[in-house]
Write a structure and sequence with these properties.
alpha/beta, 24% helix, globular
């Protein structure tokens, strides 16, 4: 049986190791198929539930000004309801469980893992942020989890897999193999101290060896990946689908992409089709895709993203705000809520101090593409914190900033959620030539990457996206003087070469303040008097 006919396909053709055709579907292409597996002994239905880029949001939270969204207790209720209606269900997570809200960070993701255990997750792939903590913490997390962590391409220096590469699940009438892949870019983006004894092998080469092996042992092959969705077929999960035959479904993470419908790669030689799905981030939605399987082939599918108590803001006639649920409201699982609430209460007691007030929101939706008011604030705080060294400027990576600031009171908790990493503020010196090399690298950073810079006062420059260069660089109003040295403040992650900032490794005798970025920001907000107004200061110009 062929796939249900689909209209208005957008086709892009590229040449690679094999020719692939990429189709992007409109929502109409995911109308429920009309199949009755109970009357057809050779047709089977598999329901795959999936999440990704959860980033430590175990209890309901405010997404900017929208309260009480997400949370594992509500997700547990939804998962239980779906399982009651479907016989064959897989529950998968595509990585980056770690690093998010304080309630998760303070307990090294223990509440998150307890919640995943309660829901009965089948597997999770290692994301790059699983290496934000030392390896011994990762091993403790794996010991606590009642589900396996997967990755076929992360190995120790002895050549052993760090975690198991795949699992096989047997259902009535068919078998499913699930293997994990972690982005090899982790060797650049990962904390250098934590990954120094690990090897991240090329995802394609590993998959080419593993998929044929699994094809002999399973009817359906699922790649549980933390690779990302990018333009073209040269990177991320699209590259995997285009270059490795035999994968039926890629459940992906890493880029926090909200795919309302799957992407599809078709191999024209075998007509085998690979679906790619990703479910946004932070547990705001639960991804659900139903696959109909016959003779070791997916013959139809239906997908949806189910909102977890998301709401839209509406204005009442009197001008006041109100909230309307997107989809149906979901009650929280009382057992899981009782399990997780003590962790949240303990953190709230510590972090409920009000430190300031935001007169308008500080958005962070596009911080990996351009300068933001929040990025300016964070970088200015770092420079201010080490002002005794008279630094020329400060620089942080946008990937270190994980949330925005809502209008209204600012608490310690909100700042810890914005800057969740245990990354300290570091002062170092670079020569003019080394500063030039630093900006030569910054010019190559692709929009959307966590390496995208946010900077303090004292520096201005233009990023030429077409030429991949930085131009018009002015430090305190003057061009780079190659005969002098410059004082720069950054975070400890970048100071160790994280996110590709190898220029910082050239410094001699850096000073680590041992003060975390979040604590420096809290002190700076208090220094400013607590009242914040978002303002983008025009330090970075983008030349498209």
């Amino acid at each position: 049986m062929a796939f249900t006919p689909m209209r208005n396909r957008k086709i892009a053709i590229t040449m690679g190791l094999l020719l692939a055709i990429l189709f992007t579907f409109s929502p109409a292409h995911c109308l429920p198929p009309k199949h009755n597996a109970s009357k057809d002994q050779n047709l089977h239905r598999l329901t795959v539930l999936f999440t990704n880029d959860f980033h430590g949001h175990p209890v309901k939270f405010s997404n900017l000004s929208v309260p009480d969204v997400g949370g594992l207790p509500a997700r547990a209720t939804l998962v239980k309801k779906i399982r009651s209606k479907h016989q064959n269900v897989l529950l998968l997570d595509a990585g980056d469980l770690n690093t998010g809200q304080s309630v998760s960070n303070f307990f090294k993701a223990k509440p998150d893992i307890l919640g995943y255990n309660h829901m009965g997750y089948d597997a999770m792939v290692l994301g790059n942020h699983e290496f934000d903590n030392p390896i011994h913490v990762l091993r403790e997390q794996m010991g606590l989890a009642k589900f396996p962590f997967l990755s076929a391409n992360v190995k120790t220096k002895t050549g052993d897999h760090l975690v198991i590469p795949y699992i096989i699940r047997q259902f009535s009438g068919f078998t499913v193999a699930i293997f994990g892949l972690t982005t090899a870019e982790t060797k650049i983006t990962g904390n250098p101290d934590h990954i120094k004894d690990l090897i991240f092998e090329d995802e394609i080469e590993v998959a080419k060896q593993l998929v044929p092996y699994l094809r002999k042992r399973a009817d359906v092959i699922i790649a549980l990946t933390h690779l990302g969705i990018y333009e073209g077929l040269s990177r991320g999960s699209k590259r995997l689908a285009a270059r490795v035959r035999g994968i039926d479904l890629i459940v992906d993470g890493n880029t926090d992409t909200k795919l309302e419908v799957p992407l599809m790669i078709i191999d024209p030689d075998s007509t085998h089709q690979t679906l790619i799905v990703q479910a946004w981030h932070w547990g705001l939605v639960l991804g659900k895709i139903d696959l109909w399987i016959r003779d070791k082939r997916v013959v139809d599918f239906n997908m949806e993203l189910i909102p977890i108590n998301l709401k839209r803001i509406i204005k009442k006639p009197d001008g006041k705000k109100a909230f309307r649920f997107i989809g149906k409201p979901i009650k929280e699982d009382p057992e899981l809520l009782a399990l997780l609430q003590p962790y949240a209460d303990k953190v709230d007691r510590f972090l409920d101090e009000t430190i300031g007030y935001a007169k308008a929101p500080f958005e962070n939706n596009d911080g990996r593409y351009r300068e933001t008011a929040l990025g300016d604030l964070v970088a200015d705080a770092m420079r201010w914190h080490l002002r005794r060294f008279n630094p020329d400027f400060a620089l942080t990576n946008s990937g270190a900033i994980r949330g925005g600031i809502s209008e209204g009171p600012l608490t310690r908790k909100s700042i810890y959620n914005i800057l969740p990493f245990d990354s300290s503020v570091v002062f170092l010196k670079l020569t003019g030539d080394q500063v030039q090399a630093l900006f030569d690298y910054i010019g190559t950073i692709q929009p959307g990457e966590g390496a995208f810079p946010q900077v303090s006062g004292g520096i201005r420059f233009t990023m030429n996206e077409e030429k991949k260069t930085c131009e018009n660089i002015l430090i305190n109003g003057s061009p780079i003087d190659h005969g002098k040295s410059y004082g720069i403040v950054t975070n400890s992650y970048l100071a160790k070469g994280g996110d590709g900032y190898g220029a910082f490794l050239k410094t001699i005798d850096p000073f680590d303040s041992s003060t975390f970025q979040n604590d420096a920001l809290i002190a700076y907000i208090k220094h400013l008097g607590g009242n914040l107004v978002p303002e983008v200061n025009g330090r970075i110009t983008i030349n498209h």
